[in-house]
Amino acid sequence: MQIYLDYSATTPPRTEANEAMQTVCTSLWGNPSSLHEWGGRAATVLEKARMQVASLLNAANSESIIFTSGGTEADNLAIMGVARNYTSPQHIIISSVEHSAVTEPAKLLQQWGWDVTYLPVDATGRINPLDLQAALQPNTVLVSVIYGQSEVGTIQPIETLGNIARNHGALFHTDAVQVAGRLPLDVQKLPVDLLSLSSHKIYGSQGAGALYVRPGVQLVPLLCGGGQELKLRSGTQALPAIASFGIAAELAAKEMPTETARLISLREQLFDSLADTPSLIPTGDRLYRLPHHVSFYLATADGENVTGKTIVRQLNLAGIAISAGSACHSGKLSPSPVLLAMGFSETVAKSGIRLTLGRETTAADIDWTAIALKQVLQRLNPVKFAVSY
Cα 191 vs. chain centroid, distance in angstroms? Predict the structure, then answer.
């Protein structure tokens, strides 16, 4: 029996998305920029996908959607695209629990002399809007806050934060990669100027993403070339992946009301099934939480020996895929920056695990995973990881 519970890392492309890719690869493979019939057919595919993704966000103008290679490029285009408007360093604000696709560009800007403020979070990973208000400066040009945190599942008060930034005159960007397809996103109501998406997080192909750019927002492109994507992202578009993205977005919007409720039910089932396991301490906010997201850290003095990656490997042997929050570089285990930002020790920050659910997850999968995880914990340390069944 194999159970995949790592849907925040990537989702299996759904059948309809694969079929869209196959159709493009076999019969609609023209260059969308070409003026002949082959190019025209390809351009039709491209613009249909653009409208499908725009519809997922309730964007009034499909030209607000700029296709990229994924969420990472979309985040980089948002951060660096704004920054490159300025000839001298300015001030930006990001949260302390951002994805590296935001933190790394911010670090680069710091090397270039920019002032970067990292907003603190509480023990659940949530921002206090008053901290944003206090951090704003006269030269603050951009605020970037992740919508749903991929490691601990916490959802930020994006509407409140966006309004604070807007009232100050700063642009507001949110990485909504984990939220798209799971919770409604309406850019006509949300005070966001820039919003990042990724195809492979909503059952589309890897290799495609998008940045929503509110009309009137000026970005300087990262790539120089033929001027595709309204001159913001040069290069011939990856049409098969984009077609897959489009159909995945359309189906996600259609299925969201029922699928989100189902995921929340399964999420709570898993939390409840593991509630009698004192060595597993939930992380993130239980109320303001991604529908599909369950996360814990290991409560043990031996955390340096029993890490999150240890649990990942043990469950993998049982045929269950989950993920750990800490990073491993050159064989050295590093504590999770997200858990550190939430106030946890380095030992705890190496012990985080994440179980994320999706379209193929069943109640039986949840039951079996809870049993297997308890058995793994007890086998690793029968004293400290005492569990009940």
Answer: 19
- Kindly report whether the global pTM for this prediction surpasses the value 0.90: yes
- Note the pLDDT tens digit of each residue in 352-382: 999 999 999 999 999 999 999 999 998 887 5
Strands (E), the chain: 3-4, 65-68, 91-95, 115-119, 140-144, 171-175, 194-198, 209-213, 280-282, 293-298, 320-321, 323-324, 327-329, 332-334, 353-356
Q: Is residue 301's pLDDT more than 50?
A: no
Q: Is position 25 annotated as part of the catalytic site?
A: no
Contacts of 299 by beta carbon, 8 Å cutoff, 6+ apart: 278, 279, 280, 281
Q: What CA dihedral angle connects 61, 158, 148 and 125, to 10 degrees?
A: 170
Which of these is catalytic: 123, 230, 275, 328?
Answer: 328
**DSSP character string of 107-131:** HHHHHTT-EEEEE---TTS---HHH
Per-residue confidence (pLDDT) for residue 332, from 0 to 100: 58
Statement: residue 383 has pLDDT above 70:
no
- DSSP lists the bridge partners of residue 4 as 321
SS3 category, 62: helix
Count the neighbouring beta carbons within 10 Å of the beta carbon of residue 364.
Answer: 10
Helix axes 37-57, 239-273, angle to 10 degrees: 30
Residue 278 is classified by DSSP as: T
Ramachandran angles phi, psi of 83, nearest 5°: -60, -35
d(CA 252, CA 234): 28
How far from chain centre, in Å, is Cα 140?
25
